[in-house]
Amino acid sequence: MRLSAVIIAIAMGVLPSSGVAQASVADSAAVLHLIQQRAEAMRSRSAELQRPNYAPGAVWINAFGVRRTGRDSIVAFLGRLYADTGYRASRLIDEAPPELIFVRPDVAIVHEFHAREGQRMADGTVVDRRTHSTFVVTKEDGRWLIQYQHIADERPRPSPR
Questions:
Q1: Buried b / exposed e across 33-57, counting CB within 10 Å, b at 16+?
Q2: DSSP alpha helix (H) spans, 64-143
Q3: N or C: where does the chain have the smaller number of CB atoms within 10 Å of the terminal CB?
Q4: Residue ranges per domain, the chain?
Q5: How many CA atoms lie within 13 A of 17 on its CB side?
Q6: What is the pLDDT of residue 20?
């Protein structure tokens, strides 16, 4: 958690970025385009549109602890998720621009936030979710791919006493 906070702080410009790799404008744009393609595939609920975004051996972990390894496994899971009536009932209500930091010229970390309302869970409860995704992306043979994605739900902050 602390490492995530430091990475996000660096990306937001809160901490000095000495030692952080510099990337070309083209690579920055390509990584952000990759994340936008993934988000658009999610919005359109098209698992197959997700396929080219993930590396063959990618790891994907959602906020409920479901872990999938490999592009085919990820796409299959997303296909079932997007077909689920509870997920389909939800709608995107807020999102923030992705935050991007390059660890090396060929490795980047991206943070993405979005909020959904109206997701019906398996037990029938309806929830609103504020979700943070962290991606590790790498440049492979000139192409940027998602190697690792971790999704976490934001918990409500307790009221001050």
A1: ebbeebbebbeeeebebbeebbbee
A2: 71-83, 85-88
A3: C
A4: 21-153
A5: 17
A6: 61
Q: Which two tokens stand for residue 108?
A: 């980047």
83: how many CB neighbours lie within 10 A of its CB?
11
What pLDDT, in 10s, does the model give residues 37-86? 999 999 999 999 999 999 999 999 999 999 999 999 999 999 999 999 99
- 3-class SS shares of the chain: helix, strand, coil, % to 5: 35, 40, 25
Tokens representing 120 are 């019906």
pLDDT at 28 over 90: yes
- Tokens in use for 82? 């997007």
Q: Give the sign of the dihedral formed by CA 44, CA 45, CA 46, CA 52.
A: positive
Local structure of residue 53 (DSSP, 8 states) = G
21-153: CATH, from 3.10.450.50, 1.10.10.410, 3.40.30.10, 3.30.450.20: 3.10.450.50
Query: DSSP character for 123?
Result: T
Residue 115 has a pLDDT of 95
